[in-house]
Design goal:
alpha+beta; 5-stranded antiparallel sheet; 3-stranded antiparallel sheet
Length: 251
């Protein structure tokens, strides 16, 4: 039943996955054209949430209405980080650190924390050394890469490309993108378990293996993008770095 007075908006990401294939683009573009800019459009959307949903309601006692303090805001932040990461990977990959850069940044951070490092250079060596490159300008709202002092966990992108799929991660999520032949949703079967993921197309395995660590099944989703790509979003149980997508020893 459509929302009449107030509707529950939290919990699972099924709505996001359903919209991600662009089926509502015409409707949303029509809305956007009636606004002066992004901020104006955001106000309209957020005011709808305020008036017609329980997004801003702070849960009290045993009530199931609303969200515990801070949870709704973190949910919005999580979606922003997820979608910004996807956009940057597609449109501005030069702003994203490579796996090798991340490794170097982690190693430098480890050496600093241990108080180690190499001996101080001599005056002659310091004079002959090239000046360090100036930090790249970071657009407003974009976290710096590890090389510019940012959190490495926010910039772990495109960690591997194997066979016909690629994957990347943030501290909270893993996104897997699988190229497939032209398909409809009924051709694809996805099974997501706490430590395993299976993706089949017309009965044939595309991915079938044990995950590096446990995921939250209820908050993990998938969708078919333009009939040619299966996209999985897996929410991590622990906010940490995955060295691999699949645990080969456990597979």
């Amino acid at each position: 039943r459509p929302c009449a007075d107030r509707c529950r908006v939290g919990g699972r990401r099924a709505a996001l996955a359903a919209m991600a294939d662009g089926r509502f683009d015409d409707l949303l573009l029509g809305m956007a054209q009636k606004h002066k800019g992004i901020e104006d459009l955001l106000y309209t959307v957020m005011s709808f949430y305020e008036r017609r949903t329980d997004l801003f309601h702070v849960r009290e006692g045993d009530s199931k209405t609303g969200f515990p303090p801070g949870e709704a805001e973190e949910m919005m932040r999580k979606q922003f980080r997820l979608l910004q990461g996807r956009y940057l990977q597609r449109a501005q990959p030069h702003l994203i650190a490579t796996p090798e850069q991340i490794r170097q940044a982690r190693e430098a951070q480890r050496q600093r924390s241990e108080g180690g490092g190499t001996e101080a250079p001599t005056a002659a060596a310091a004079a002959s050394a090239p000046a360090p490159a100036a930090p790249r300008p970071i657009p407003e709202g974009v976290n710096a890469s590890p090389l510019d002092g940012g959190d490495p966990g926010q910039w772990e992108r495109l960690e591997a490309k194997e066979q016909n799929y690629s994957w990347h991660q943030s501290p909270t999520d893993v996104t897997v993108e699988i190229d497939v032949e032209k398909s409809v949703a009924s051709d694809i079967k996805v099974t997501i378990a706490p430590r395993k993921v299976v993706v089949k197309r017309k009965g044939e395995d595309i991915i079938n293996g044990a995950l590096h660590e446990k995921i939250n099944v209820e908050e993990s989703t998938w969708y078919l993008d333009s009939g040619k790509k299966v996209v999985l979003t897996l929410e991590k149980v622990k906010q940490n770095f995955w060295a691999t997508l699949l645990d080969q020893k456990a597979s």
